[in-house]
Amino acid sequence: MYRIAVFVGSTRPTSSNLKLAKALEKLAAGKLEFDFIEIGNLPFYDDALWNDPPAEVIRLKREIAAADAVLFVTPEYNRSIPGLLKNAIDWPSRPYGDGVWSGKPGAIAGATGGVSGTAAAQAHLRSILPVLGLALMGAPEVYFQSRPGAIDDEGSITDERVRTNLGIWVERFTDWIARFATPRRSLEEIERKTA
Ligand SMILES: Cc1cc2nc3c(=O)[nH]c(=O)nc-3n(C[C@H](O)[C@H](O)[C@H](O)COP(=O)(O)O)c2cc1C
Description:
Rossmann fold, alpha/beta, binds flavin mononucleotide
């Protein structure tokens, strides 16, 4: 089973993106193991902090390095991604030449109550992530409209057509990871690289 480092671009306990990520986790049961990564406690990126890197940053880099793939599920803020998520993308890309994103298979998804379905935010992610060396899955795309009742109290997608399409997305992402996954780095190697 593939281990996925999951980044949700909202820290709200009632986040519609967290709900979508959990619904995807449920659909992917038995194929993908979701590891929800804490990003709300990271300091703002500061190059000077590499002299004595914060424990949260070291933890973040280790969690990514130990994953087979990464998934970003994000809201759209003012036609882009939230600063929270950009900060969590910037930290593991450094120090220069020692980032942990390169070579990871990845996918993106987003939920909004609006009609644009986070398309603008996802377009920005599509321009950022390949530059970091991620093998980003281009299709199928997930633009989820989080209207009331779209996900029930058990965390299931209520609309059958949407549920089927997201099931196909899970299969495609699993195939994508199989194509691009590199062997997980040993804990010793990760410790050496991130210490
Ligand atoms: C600062 C801010 C900017 C926003 N800009 C957009 C936007 O550009 N497009 C959009 O569809 N929704 C926008 N929204 C609405 C969010 O999509 C909505 O709040 C969403 O529920 C947040 O995701 P969450 O439920 O996962 O926290 C914005 C919300 C905030 C707080």
